[in-house]
Amino acid sequence: MTEDRIQWLDTVTKLGPGHAGRVVVAASHGGEYAAYCAARAQVRAVIFNDAGVGKESEGIHAISYFGKLGVPAAATSHLSARIGDGQDHHDTGVISYVNEAAARIGCRVGQSTQDCAGHMRAAKAFGYAVPAKAESRALIAGENGRPGIVVIDSLALLTPEDAGSIMVTGSHGALLPTDSRILMNGDARGVLLCDAGFGKEGNGVRRVMALDEHGKPGASVSVTSARIGNAQSVLETGILSFVNRTAAGLGAHVGMTARQYVTLLQERLADSPVVLGRP
Questions:
Q1: Widest CA span of the chain, in angstroms?
Q2: Which of 59, 87, 120 is the C-terminal boundary of a domain?
Q3: 86-120, pLDDT tens digit by residue?
Q4: Domain span including residue 186
Q5: Cα(161)–Cα(186) distance, rounded to whole angstroms?
Q6: Whole-structure pTM value
Q7: How many CA atoms lie within 13 A of 80 on its CB side?
Q8: How many domains would you assign to the chain?
Q9: What are the pLDDT digits (tens) for 193-237?
Q10: Is residue 127 part of a domain?
Q11: Contact 119, 106 (CB under 8 A)
């Protein structure tokens, strides 16, 4: 039995079988990994954050992804709602992109996110095949005392076992209002995320800033330089757009490539003790 109540969430990584057949307003970016998480949950219709759209329009990849499945999907402007904050999306968001399936049931650009979600309740719930997703996690071993690198498409994939590594993730750098853990379910010695276009109130880099409180270097790459939600893209083509005080103290600066930043951290953190604990 489908559920007519609209569900808002800070992140699609929290979606599960209980959300099947529901209309979901998610504050996640609309990249491939986020789209996969929503499809895996078999949502009836879904709204993401456009995350500044970015390189190869990856921030709104989900619009066409769900369009091919015949599922209504839309995106909220990153300037109208705080990425990572589901309630703000529902309450103040403005729609920036819709797919054809959403347009057919009354969704349109310029509409409030809340109104768009209301129209989406008219969509029919059905089961659909989820496109295969490539491995979202890779490990690059460190050498000569240097820390290794964990390359993950989502911060949600970080584990306690990664505490000795430098994390490169495709996730946005916003903090979730419903989860106070800076690095969610794991830890890392240094961090690289995506700025998601900075967005409303600069929320796209708040997590990077918060890492200073724990003495951890953090930085973000410009969403125009790498595909958000794709950690390999962040590492291979990313250009730093923001660094926190701790990273700056190690020599990191805006304009560095992601590779240069990671190499710098490996050199500066080589043979230094690992401080365990989840900030």
A1: 59
A2: 120
A3: 999 999 999 999 999 999 999 999 999 999 999 99
A4: 137-269
A5: 7
A6: 0.93
A7: 21
A8: 2
A9: 999 999 999 999 999 999 999 999 999 999 999 999 999 999 999
A10: no
A11: yes
